[in-house]
Amino acid sequence: xxxxxxxxxxxxxxxxxxxxxxxxxxxVRAELAELSSSINDGGDSPFGGIAEAKALEARLHEFLxxxxxxxxxxxxxxxxxxxxxxxxxxxxxxxxxxxxxYDLTWYHRTDLGFLGxxxxxxxxxx
Length: 126
Prior knowledge:
This protein has three helices and five strands, in the order H-H-H-E-E-E-E-E. It is α+β, with helices and mostly antiparallel strands and about 130 residues long.
């Protein structure tokens, strides 16, 4: 399978959908965490029981799968970390977005990972 490479403009254009999908993930993730805790403790939850937990897991998977369908890589689900494969000055990089950020303003080289995360230079965001 060929890896999609994004231009900054293409990745930035997807950010409204990324933020919307991330909001759904955050909500479902929180409900699932609370429900799972209640099930494990044998208590009651306003979110239901095992069947509802399975349904929440399926919804979470569906939302996370949206990213893969767009060619976006999910690197973490809590917090949500996603990467857009791209090139910057001839170097393979990942445009990196972390849950809680609004815009896409970070990148890291593919060989360095999140620890090598840097702010995008202004000329790369044109």
